């Protein structure tokens, strides 16, 4: 706290603002943990999805895996990347709890948070678009709803989107918090 | 400049920082204009896409419009919303050029910029996922590549994604700039 005040070249005592900044930093840490759980769960749920239908012909076994659809592979990669980033950002978040006046690290965090928000949103919404087609099909394009056959496959992939979208909302909050912390130094 | 210094309760002269903040605010304004052009062009290009094939049977005319695929409708809505937001945010951006010390309006901008970034990314990547299926099809799910018939329709929809993705990159830069401006008050 003191070293931060010296660094900024200010002499006024800023205890309440610093206290609030500490609160913001702790909230930041908690939100990161929750987002990590969400994206990790999403990635694992999607990555382990497969369904083999109980009937088969002599030559074909009807089997659906997540990587039959390239978009779902992208979804898993996006979630894994964001999870790894969140783990890496946790030490920086702890550093912000201890030294709430640091400035450059916050800007770096804002930048990477924003990039990761984009990646996560891209993965989640691309997968959602495919899940929508899988559920409803599209008569104009002659795409059939595969969910009528692969029922549990569809339920699993749809469900695994939730964690990602929770992560998106949390990232928006994280960026807002970083902005608040930057403005209240 | 002076009123800002008084507002903050500081007595030091901060001309170089304020000058840089003015530069950041002007850059912010320009980036917003470019992003507006990109999203508007994307929305209009997708919204006016349709193709009627030169052959038809007695009962069916083969015609593809953007709203045959719900995801493309979402794409147009997302781009229209983001364009409208960008127009509304321009006055605030001009306000930041004049008064570069304002703080609350910047945080409000960061929040809405982040939300709009999410919306735009969601629209663009969902549309990209559908365009991918339209181009490549998916043999496992029995979805056919419709681009073999609707050639110009596919080219138009693919091309209209570009403006949106440019917009996404610009939004990331905008949020970074806002963070920089907040830290350098």
Characterise this structure.
The structure is a homodimer of 185-residue chains. With 185 residues, chain A is mainly α. The first copy, chain A, has one domain (13-51, 65-183). Chain A is 72% helix and 6% strand. Chain A has a two-stranded antiparallel ribbon. The termini of chain A are close together. The interface between A and B is large, with 49 and 48 residues.
Our count of domains of chain A comes out at 1
How many DSSP H or I helices of chain A? Answer: 5
Number of strands of chain A: 2
Largest sheet of chain A: 2 strands, antiparallel
What is the strand arrangement across the widest sheet of chain A?
1-2
Overall morphology of chain A: elongated
Percentage of helical residues of chain A?
A: over 70%
What is the gyration radius of chain A calculated from CA atoms? 22 Å
User: Which assembly state applies to the chains in this document?
Assistant: homodimer
Instruction: Let me know the average pLDDT of chain A.
Output: 85
Largest interface: A-B, 49 and 48 residues
Low-confidence stretches of chain A: 1-14
Cα distance, first to last residue of chain A?
A: 11 Å
Could you give the order of the helices and strands of chain A? Answer: HHEEHHH
Structural class of chain A: mainly alpha
Domain Casparian strip membrane protein (chains A, B): 22-170
Subcellular location (chains A, B): Cell membrane
Keywords (chains A, B): Cell membrane, Membrane, Transmembrane, Transmembrane helix
Family (chains A, B): Belongs to the Casparian strip membrane proteins (CASP) family.
């Amino acid at each position: 706290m003191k070293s931060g005040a010296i660094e900024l070249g200010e002499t006024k005592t800023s205890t309440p603002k610093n206290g609030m900044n500490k609160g913001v930093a702790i909230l930041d840490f908690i939100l990161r943990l929750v987002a990590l759980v969400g994206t990790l769960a999403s990635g694992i749920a999607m990555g382990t999805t497969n369904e083999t239908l109980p009937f088969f012909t002599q030559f074909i076994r009807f089997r659906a895996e997540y990587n039959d659809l390239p978009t779902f592979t992208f979804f898993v990669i996006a979630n894994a990347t964001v999870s790894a980033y969140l783990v890496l950002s946790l030490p920086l978040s702890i550093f912000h709890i201890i030294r709430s006046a640091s400035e450059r690290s916050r800007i770096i965090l804002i930048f990477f948070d924003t990039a990761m928000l984009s990646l996560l949103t891209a993965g989640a919404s691309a997968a959602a678009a495919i899940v929508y087609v899988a559920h409803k099909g599209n008569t104009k394009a002659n795409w059939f709803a595969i969910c009528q056959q692969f029922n549990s496959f569809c339920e699993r992939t749809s469900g695994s989107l939730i964690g990602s979208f929770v992560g998106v909302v949390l990232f928006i909050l994280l960026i807002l918090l970083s902005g608040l912390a930057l403005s209240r130094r």
